[in-house]
Amino acid sequence: MPIDIRALRYFVETARQRSFTQAASSLYVTQSTISKMVRQLEDEIGQPLLIREGKSVRLTDVGKVVYERGQEALGVVHRLTLEVADLSSLGRGQLHVGIPPMVNLFFSPAVSAFRKRYPNLQLTLAEHGGQVIEQQVANGEIEVGATVLPGDSGLALETRQFAKYPIWVVGPRDAAWAKERTAGRTGTRTAGRTAVGTISLHALSQEPLVMLTEAFSLTRTMRQIFLEARIEPRVVAQSGHWDFLASMAVAGLGTTFLPEPLVARLESRDRLAVARLIEPTVDWTLAHIWSPGRYLSHAARAWLDVCDEVMGG
């Protein structure tokens, strides 16, 4: 049974995004094109693959099988393309790198250096949550990416740390925990300002929380921290945008967790209560990832080398 690779790619992205609209935006095509190609794939398979529910979709039983095997097939095609193209070295070609939205601000200098050094290489940065990027690297859909550690240990990915920052608590100025925070005793500073203080996780046990969506590695880490502390977090809202979390905190909706570099960038900081999280101390550790047993193109290796030079390791 012949299967159109492009139709398979469109179906996999639609299943991943759970939306024709989001898939079309991600692939830079029209929604009608996505719908047509998915329908074509369903005709080729002879079974419905998606259940349409308003603006969202979910997989049928057959769709789940095609989705899993489809990711594997697309990974094989992608690796084949890379290995053939790589024979021409770095004179031309393309490289896709997965970067979580909260991490992208660190990569501007590396992107600039890479483009100057390899002007004929097309570099595409794909933004997804860390967990999605880990899965894409493991499947071979992309060669290299970045994530927040610890990653999914079951994927057995190679990691190379390039940054590490403490997690801070950010919330309304009148939050109950803001009155309990302990002033910093060591005169530590962040972004040129004296640290406000520290706060323990248990002081937040009754606080309403606004957090990043479940696709983000930071949320995975914080949920594990709460579980180990035997605290049930009161999550009242979630968003995929860290600056919106800060806006909700300013509005008094709840408290959130942000890594130190993002706290330093908050324009609304003067209207917020901020404190470094201790007991336990939680770090935001960033790392490059790739699959250790898979062919790594010249372009991917060049990208990692440039990042090491510009960002350190």
TrEMBL record:
GO terms for cellular component: cytosol. The keyword Transcription regulation applies. SUPFAM superfamilies: Periplasmic binding protein-like II (SSF53850), Winged helix' DNA-binding domain (SSF46785). It comes from the Bacteria. Keywords: DNA-binding, Transcription, Transcription regulation. PROSITE patterns: HTH_LYSR. InterPro entries: HTH-type_LysR_regulators (IPR050950), LysR_HTH_N (IPR000847), LysR_subst-bd (IPR005119), WH-like_DNA-bd_sf (IPR036388), WH_DNA-bd_sf (IPR036390). GO terms for molecular function: DNA binding; DNA-binding transcription factor activity. Residues 3-60 form the HTH lysR-type domain. The keyword DNA damage does not apply. Belongs to the LysR transcriptional regulatory family. This is LysR family transcriptional regulator. It comes from Cupriavidus plantarum.
